UniProtKB/TrEMBL annotation:
Self-association state and partner proteins as the record states: Forms a stable energy-coupling factor (ECF) transporter complex composed of 2 membrane-embedded substrate-binding proteins (S component), 2 ATP-binding proteins (A component) and 2 transmembrane proteins (T component).
Entry similarity comment: Belongs to the energy-coupling factor EcfT family.
Transmembrane segments: 26-53, 73-99, 248-273
Membrane-topology descriptor: Multi-pass membrane protein
Name of the featured protein: Energy-coupling factor transporter transmembrane protein EcfT
Amino acid sequence: MIRDITIGQYYPANSILHRLDPRVKIVCTLLFLISLFLQKSILGYVVATLFLVIVIRESKVPFKFIVKGLKPIILLLLITVGFNLFLTDGPVVLVKFWIFRITDTGLETAVYMAIRLMYLIIGSSLMTFTTTPNELTDGIEKLLHPLNKIKVPVHEIAMMMSIALRFIPILLEETDKIMKAQIARGADLESGNIIQKAKSMIPILVPLFVSAFRRANDLAMAMESRCYRGGDGRTKMKPLVYKSRDRMAYAAMIVYMVLIVVIGRFVPFHIWIF
């Protein structure tokens, strides 16, 4: 389960998405996530699916690697679908048993919510798969640069976000190693009730916190030894410059958003998924 979490990982490949300006990928990812909540019909999700398939194909990231990131949210997905399926009232009752009812509106809402959740994870993961932590830092800092005028420490915020994102796969890998080491020493992490399982996590959490603080200290010492100073006056080895492919990506995203808004405005919600 730990190894299935792919958020924050970078997948090296020679694709047009990898070569795009990080600002383009950040903005387009945010717009795509927003578009998932603008559509109210199956036609809108068909358009979003086609758009996502094209992006995945162009990214050259293996589809099985992307789907792997959905495994950790299966429980959350089932809970979300279950609540929407059984607790949403509607004019037509499709199935009724005991105290539970499945209505047409509940079925539509559950399916749409499941699609939204999966696409949120896939869309966010694609950005980290195709963007290095350094590029993410530069992109976030450049996008938030106007906030410097009101004394917001943009560079420090961007650096913290990038480091936090980069530490996710590192800490997950460390957790996996600690769990295997404890199991090899005879620790039982699976059996027992919830309280017993919580207690069995203590031998994992203590060394994990120690490792996290040690890594943070090593990172701070490495930055200080290199005389790192952020903020104003810091130059870039590779300054961000928009190119023709970046403008084309923006244009494609604008066309997609216009299509989504038009569909959401004129196509009714109650279009059956069957």
